């Protein structure tokens, strides 16, 4: 997404399009004043879509804060005598690890929808939520604030089809969602399971986790299981592993089907190199 001359600070937390559409991040007087607020006066927002934070990443940011300070202020709203975070929880957590007593803040008065929108925007643009966390956040915007996929896409600076595809991960059974979070499984690997039966998911999920299956292996397993059953699909998976191994060895695409092994070369030169290797 294009950025048009936005500098450090609050402006870097939101898409340029929102500013151009009349959403002024410094519209009230309080927001124009940078305040140092004690860390123990700040609390996280329970509506924040991110629930987990990588400890190594936090430690790295904390070290940077020790050396350079907090380069961008966090955004908070005053509530019940405390300051609730709208955007910047990761920096707040890292500042605590770094031993800071205060952190630079911009105090805002935002309604709950803008708080959630800003939290999603910051996380989606700076340190992506996993697909399940993102999908849950998008669903909250749809269900609680009557936003369309197009509205969400505009707010977070992604294409509408990306929003649609992310929301589809909510169709996964709970065990698959949990595995995706716990083992940091990629969208590519898990996407084929969206249309898979619960029985197939039960069989393939342990393979994804224990054998580190890639997206191609999962896709072919799911596809073949629909056609021929799990026993033959397991046999085909064995072929897929061999295809990958042989393909890496000879530097070409390999396909194994029944009793046929096919080598596919992109150029004449590549074919000559393959033939030379096979003749050795």
Provide a descriptive summary of the structure in words.
The model is unreliable at 1-32 (pLDDT under 50). With 280 residues, this protein is α/β, with parallel strands linked by helices. Among the domains are: 10-127, Conserved hypothetical protein from pyrococcus furiosus pfu- 392566-001, ParB domain (Alpha-Beta Complex); 172-248, no CATH class. The chain contains 13 helices and seven strands. It has a five-stranded mixed beta sheet. A two-stranded antiparallel sheet has the order 6-7. It is elongated, with a radius of gyration of 24 Å. Helix 2 crosses helix 3 (89-97), helix 4 (112-126) runs antiparallel to helix 5 (131-145) and helix 6 (149-156) crosses helix 7 (160-167).
List the helices and strands and how they pair.
Layout: H1 16-20, E1 34-38, E2 42-43, H2 55-68, E3 74-79, E4 82-87, H3 89-97, E5 102-108, H4 112-126, H5 131-145, H6 149-156, H7 160-167, H8 174-182, H9 187-190, H10 198-210, H11 215-228, H12 230-250, E6 253-257, E7 260-264, H13 268-279
Parallel strand pairs: 2-4, 3-5
Antiparallel strand pairs: 1-5, 3-4, 6-7
Helix pairs in contact: 2-3, 4-5, 6-7, 11-12
């Amino acid at each position: 997404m294009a950025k048009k001359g936005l500098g450090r600070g609050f402006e870097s937390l939101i898409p340029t399009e929102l500013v151009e559409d009349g959403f002024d991040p410094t519209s009230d007087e309080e927001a124009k004043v940078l305040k140092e607020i004690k860390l123990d006066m700040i609390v996280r927002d329970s509506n924040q879509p991110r629930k987990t934070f990588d400890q190594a990443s936090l430690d790295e940011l904390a070290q940077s804060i020790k050396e350079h300070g907090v380069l961008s202020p966090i955004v908070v709203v005053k509530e019940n005598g405390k300051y609730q975070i709208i955007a910047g929880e990761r920096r707040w957590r890292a500042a605590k690890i770094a031993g800071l007593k205060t952190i630079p803040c911009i105090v805002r008065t935002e309604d709950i929808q803008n708080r959630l929108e800003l939290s999603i925007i910051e996380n989606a643009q700076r340190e992506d939520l996993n697909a399940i966390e993102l999908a849950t956040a998008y669903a909250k915007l749809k269900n609680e604030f009557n936003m369309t996929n197009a509205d969400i896409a505009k707010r977070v600076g992604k294409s509408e089809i990306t929003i649609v595809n992310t929301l589809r991960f909510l169709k996964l059974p709970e065990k698959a969602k949990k595995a995706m979070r716990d083992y940091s499984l990629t969208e590519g690997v898990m996407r084929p399971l969206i249309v898979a039966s619960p029985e197939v998911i039960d069989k393939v999920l342990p393979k994804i986790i224990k054998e580190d299956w890639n997206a191609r292996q999962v896709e072919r397993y799911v596809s073949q299981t629909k056609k021929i059953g799990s026993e033959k699909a397991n046999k085909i998976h064995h072929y897929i592993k061999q295809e990958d191994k042989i393909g890496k060895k000879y530097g070409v695409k390999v396909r194994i089907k029944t009793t046929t092994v096919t080598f596919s070369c992109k150029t004449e030169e590549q074919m000559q190199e393959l033939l030379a290797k096979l003749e050795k």
